[in-house]
Design goal:
heterodimer, A: mainly beta, six-stranded mixed β-sheet, five-stranded antiparallel β-sheet, 11 strands, B: mainly beta, seven-stranded mixed β-sheet, four-stranded antiparallel β-sheet, globular
């Protein structure tokens, strides 16, 4: 079982604040990283699929970077909104279809 | 249309019983998964099937047996249920994209409570 760490575990910010959180994972034999957004009482939804070329990904106010050599990824949210409140999961992929999920960062954005 | 569906959504049963959870996807994906959300809210992979073939079988008690009658379905059967089996079980499916990476689509989850 691989150790995937996400920090912080939880985060409380005010509407309009920008924030970021971290996912760290073993970099050996890794070949992709997924970020998922998980709202309470719903299912995880894919945000980004990040590959070994390490390109930054962006979707609206949310972006992510990946350091494939050292094994970490940052997720940034610019100008947080209450609807951004969710748990953000990262999941590195090491072999065919096998994901290891972190425990997530729970974001709460106060209006 | 629901992309990945699971039934039932809630399941309450007694210890020792045998139960099944069904999963269906209408996305045309060739790979399906079962995850267990443990007490610490981690999502842990249990099984994965690709084109009806078992490709991942994590350290799961053999009371848990997946069955994939076709690419669109992956069912989970649990024998002799124990209290520790209480959890939320998520089904997911995925397809291949470009460079061989995969994004997963999750079902709504089945909350199993064993009393």
């Amino acid at each position: 079982i691989l150790n995937v760490e996400q920090s912080p575990q939880s985060l409380h910010v005010q509407e309009g604040d920008s924030t970021n959180f971290t996912c760290s994972f073993p970099s050996s034999n890794f070949y992709a990283l997924h970020w998922y957004r998980w709202e309470t009482a719903k299912s995880p939804e894919a945000l980004f699929v990040m590959t070994l070329n390490g390109d930054e990904k962006k979707k609206g106010r949310i972006s992510a970077t990946l350091n494939t050599k050292e094994g970490y990824s940052y997720l940034y949210i610019k100008g947080s909104q209450p609807e951004d409140s969710a748990t953000y999961l990262c999941a590195p992929l090491y072999n065919f279809n096998k994901f290891y999920f972190g425990s997530g960062t729970k974001l709460n954005v106060k209006p | 249309d629901t992309a990945v569906s699971q039934t039932p959504k809630y399941l309450v049963t007694q210890m020792g019983n045998d139960k099944s959870i069904k999963c269906e996807q209408n996305l045309g994906h060739d790979t399906m998964y079962w995850y267990k959300q443990d007490s610490k809210k981690f999502l842990k992979i249990m099984f994965s099937y690709n084109n009806k073939e078992l490709i991942i079988n994590e350290t799961v008690p053999n009371r848990f047996s997946p069955k994939s009658p076709d690419k669109a379905h992956l069912n989970l059967h649990i024998n002799s249920l124990e209290l520790g089996d209480s959890a939320v079980y998520f089904c997911a499916s995925s397809h291949q994209r470009g460079t061989g990476t995969y994004e997963q689509y999750f079902g709504p989850g089945t909350r199993l409570t064993v009393t």
